[in-house]
Amino acid sequence: MKYFGTDGIRGIPNEKLNLALLTALGSSLKLLGNSGVLIGCDTRISKDMLFCGITAGALAAGLDVIHIGIVPTAALIYLSYKKKMTGIMITASHNPYQDNGIKIVNQGYKLTEKEEALLENSFGNLPLKNERIGQCFYDKSLVKEYHLFLSKHLCSSHKKIAIDCANGATYCVAPMLFSLITNQLIITGNEPDGYNINENVGSTHLEHLQKIVLRHQCDLGFAFDGDGDRLLCVDRKGNVVDGDVLIYGISKYLKEKNELHQNKVVLSIMSNLGIIHAFHHQNIDVVETKVGDKYIYEALTKEQLSIGGESSGHIILPNLLHTGDGILTAMFLLKILEETNTELEDWENEIHLYPHKAMNVSAKHKREILDDKQLKEKIKAYQEEFLNDCKIIVRASGTEDLLRVSVMANQEEFAEAALKDLVNLIFKLDKNYC
Q: Is 46 a catalytic residue?
């Protein structure tokens, strides 16, 4: 599709996300069959422009619009589900402030490819004239329903906790909730100005939280991304704890409670091979999917499983909520640590992470290279050399002329050598296709 990517529509405001596209998108929302639209946003300076453009199109199509203000993506999804309305989240997640995007949900669930095609094919074809003109309401009180939902999962703690809100969508709700959990709370990344979302803070810049945890001698730190649907952690020693490790610890707990359905978890193909071995040691099977939370969710739904996610920190616990929610995951994680009297380091000590080497390679002919026989044979040869105790992934970027090359092997020098060899081959193949 021309506009929709793996997670909605992203681009630069006033370039790809121009007024014509925004109003056309707003008008097309009528095709989803709901009477109204809920709109939330993160803290980017361009949020108002995008909101006004989408709203104008929706109102002209006869839809009512309710603006609920700056909220995490999970809050918008939760309220869209509860109110049975179309939901729009204006965010570019972990990207810098210059970018923005539009995530669309239909009554709380991400659009199917068929629904995305339905909307996109209508851009510019829907008549703006309508028998009814919609109304716009500002109702920030709706988010209190989401707060109430989260409050059911509060667990008091004596731990000293640091939270990094990335100057993004969690900057209000996370401090409020965690102040009810512990009286030893350190807050950072909670002063958004429209331009500083994800800027040297949050889950994409964990070095900031690492310094905070060590400086204040915290027991652990939680870092959210710009729209709050991801969680990464820092342990008391300042070590980064990624989504793979968090999924491992939560899965162990669920299994002990007989709540890990079919003894399976869902991970993306980018998860570390060492994590997969650790799961197998616990007699837990792993289902691997393509990169993207929608593929994680599809696998969870297909087999009705209990947990899935990515190393980036996007974790879905369907028994709690059907979408990734960084705050909810952090609260559940804290509950587990308190109940089992364990620390993040206990989980880390059970896992031997494989050395992981990765590089983005410029490739104008990325699709042809992926299908090239030489590349496939090279990958197969390395897998045989490493006796399949490795993971080699070459995948195309969905937005740029890039191939993302990733090698995991038990020995670092092998991973480095294989990565270098594969990158050189890709450069050669790209020239040959010119």
A: no
